[in-house]
Amino acid sequence: MAELVIRNARITNEANSFSADIEVNQGIITAICALGTAGAGEVEIDANGLDVLPGCIDMHVHFNDPGFIHREDFASGTRAAAAGGITMVVDMPLAGKPTVINTEAVLAKKNAVASKAYVDYCIWGGLVDNNIGEMAAMAKEGIAGFKAFMADAGPDFPFVQNDVLLAGMLKAKQLGSLIALHCEDDKLVKYLEEQEQSRGNTDVPAFLRSRPPYTETIAVNTAVTLAAAAGARVHICHASLAASVAIVEAARDKAPAITIETCPHYLVLDTEDFKAIGPVAKCSPPIRSREEVEALWGKVFDGSLDVIGSDHSPSTCDEKEAGKGNIWQAWGGINGVQTMIPLLLEEGVRKRGLPLKRLVQLVSANPAKILGIYPRKGTIQVGSDADFTLIDREGDWEITKESLYYKNRHSPYFGKKGKGKVVATIVRGRLVYHDEKIIGNPGFGRYIEVKN
Ligand SMILES: [Zn+2]
Questions:
Q1: Per the confidence metrics, is the pTM higher than 0.85?
Q2: How far is the CA of 62 from the centre of ligand 1 (A)?
Q3: Domains of the chain
């Protein structure tokens, strides 16, 4: 008897869509067979009327564990992920203590989170201004790659200048590893911030003026130029502009190994929303104009964007409230791991007619390929991990405080309603989330080693 059988599954991979029954044993897909032909299962799910997608992978979360677990920890973060249809997350190296910039810190993080994860996970290491000598040993630990900042990310995670960035890219290439980049120009942002602050400007428009589009595109241009020079695999994180995607697209012949990500908030919220919502919608790069939002959707549709990740960046509610009268005082970062898939189903698939296959590519197949774990993950085929996201395209949702599993339940999307609901999240054959309940266990989620 199979461990799990899913009947009447309408399966959508990035390249094909078909209906079948699925058999799972030992966490692996062992058969995909004609409707009505699967054997009996210890657990059986009837997916009639539902879409079954390869488990969604969020390459960009900050779960703050260990160190700042009053903001989020691996248990609360991966529960929220499971409730949002995410079967694997990749955690960023900078929002915890210690920051993950050497092997000791990699081991400390693995140790701290192993007993807490509800879904599978990997971690990013950090590339900072003085740790190139650590990269080889860190890569051996199976990390996803190395995240670097081109703009200030605080004293515990020193950002890199172009010399170190180039050296880091060359080292990553030698190791077969990947560099992930936050692209904003540090000097320009600091200068513009000082200009605004010296004039006593403290509102949302002042914050927006301190990070205009060119502060992002200048950095993306530099990143792409250096990536081409180094021949390195580089992943541009959280691009907020169609122009950033266009820069990558134009460089693909010289630098085929560059990929680029955006986040749901850049596709859903615009500057008018930000002004209305206030500090809860503060992030960097910032929320852009409606024109920019729609241009970015163009890149979602035309195939040039590679990934959508949440950049889930939790804080306490107080750290957001602190910016009510003065936006500079607010935490920068948006909660989003739980709401990403429903928002994309509503805003992309239902409202704009985004093909489900393209969504699968952006949130499952491409992340798996970039991480080097495809086809183990990112597709529904025999031999792959039995990770599934079951959605009801007709299912209604509303984002409320009560619906969130975050440790600190703030969101820029409160009151938002839509269609396209996560019904079940299955990780390696095990139901982790079903019918609005977390039913998995902490510690079930496994560290997925990236082999370069
Ligand atoms: Zn981030």
A1: yes
A2: 6
A3: 55-371 (3.20.20.140)
Cα-to-centroid distance, 47 and ligand 1 (Å): 34
Please choose, from the candidates 144, 141, 88, 96, the residue with its C-alpha nearest in 3D space to the C-alpha of residue 118. 88
Tell me the CA–centroid distance for residue 431 and ligand 1, in Å: 28
Ligand 1 centroid from CA 313, angstroms: 6
pLDDT tens, residue by residue, 1-30: 999 999 999 999 999 999 999 999 999 999
- Cα separations in angstroms, 30 against 22, 381, 384: 8, 8, 8
CA of 50 to the centre of ligand 1 (A): 32
Give the distance (Å) from ligand 1 centre to CA of residue 335.
Answer: 11
> Nearest CA to 337 among 4, 77, 2?
77
Ligand 1 centre and the CA of 265: distance in Å?
A: 12
- pLDDT over 70 for what percent of the chain? 100
Upstream peptide bond of 98 is cis (omega within 30 degrees of 0): yes
Q: How far is the centre of ligand 1, averaged over its atoms, from the C-alpha of 311 (Å)?
A: 5
**40 C-alpha to ligand 1 centroid (Å):** 43
